[in-house]
Automatic annotation (TrEMBL):
The modification N6-(pyridoxal phosphate)lysine is found at residue 244. This is Kynureninase. It comes from the Bacteria. It comes from Flavobacterium stagni. The keyword Hydrolase applies. Residues 169-251 form the Aminotransferase class V domain. GO terms for biological process: anthranilate metabolic process; L-kynurenine catabolic process; L-tryptophan catabolic process to kynurenine; NAD+ biosynthetic process; quinolinate biosynthetic process. Pfam families: Aminotran_5, KYNU_C. GO terms for cellular component: cytoplasm. Keywords: Hydrolase, Pyridine nucleotide biosynthesis, Pyridoxal phosphate. Belongs to the kynureninase family. It is an enzyme of class 3 (hydrolase). It catalyses: L-kynurenine + H2O = anthranilate + L-alanine + H(+); 3-hydroxy-L-kynurenine + H2O = 3-hydroxyanthranilate + L-alanine + H(+).
Amino acid sequence: MTFQNTREFAQQLDAQDGLRAYRDQFIFPQHNGKNVVYFTGNSLGLQPKSASKFVQDVMNDWANLAVEGHFYAEKPWWDYHERFANPLSKIVGALPSEVTVMNTLTINLHLLMVSFYRPEGKRYKIICEEKAFPSDQYMFQSQVRVHGYDPKDAIVEVKRREGEHNIRHEDIIAKIKEVGDELALVLWGGVNYYTGQVFDLKAITEAGHAVGAYVGFDLAHAAGNIKLNLHDWDVDFAAWCSYKYMNSGPGNASGCFVHEKHHHTNLPRFAGWWGHNKERRFKMEPDFDPVHGANGWQVSNLPILSLAPYLASVELFDEVGMDRLIEKRNQLTAYLEFVLHDIDSQLDGADFEVITPQNQDERACQLSVYLHGQGRNLFDYLMQNGVITDWREPNVIRLAPAPFYCSYEDMYEFGQILKQGITELKK
């Protein structure tokens, strides 16, 4: 398609958008009486209008049934989390028994590492990406210290080549082979939070398994954003937050994946009563008998008020399906990139650079833009003029046009505000 940077063309694309009705199912912050242009679904998704009803249903059940809501609510709290199994399994490409919801992301990664980081002898190293999200870095450091290792020795980062913004895929595979029989675990991000680079999770899994290591993924920026086939790729485990592209609300519950091949093994885990045999849970037995499947990794009973808005969003995903979301995501992101380059061409000199890979297979919803000759004052200008975006040091703004609720006209409108901001700030 030949794009045009005009409002009329953007409106034409919106008129052809099969998902355009879903925009009206989300609540937008307002700026001067208009919806903001919202680019931070990679940090916190917008609130689905249905979320408040799901929460109020729980509140009503609590008021009217009190403790009996565990078993007699319209959606009983006892098995509330089981409603996520089918829709989440479709989102991440898993069997329903391989997914669960519990806790929050870093807690779940810690819990999963109890099972899948099992250093022994010379096999004790972890491979991760350079500039992984800081929470993951802190987690790696604390985990290897618990086992008595020095993080500087046990944690192996795959780095970007000098002068490049993204990690080369061949360097990841080469590092896995190099570490070889010293490698206990590959724990990698599905999408790099800073650059928006999407990684080849299937190839990373195959390479890790080939040298005898477990392979897991932090899918914080991938779940609800990219096509995942965790079961078919033979991934050992994964976890993701739900409040970014999955629109569940601030700091909300995390999802987990454990491949079915591990469901009958004796892998160690930190146990709790919600992971115990469901039919015998209230018999208060002294010995742990885990639930079959990923639910056997649960520890405590679930925070139902937190799960309610997550379930509201998951039902929207189930209506639409990842294939349709990804189709719009690709075109919407391509149009945003076109608008950026067109605005840049109208200005005097190169004012910014897209550091996210151009190859569609290596990017998803996010474009990270490095500002040349501009600083945080441009970010501030955007925020003050109705564009909600994200600033990362030293000079990067992250733009994530989430396909559920962002429009093509939003992309055009952003381009005009960006151009005006750069022009005014140069005066």
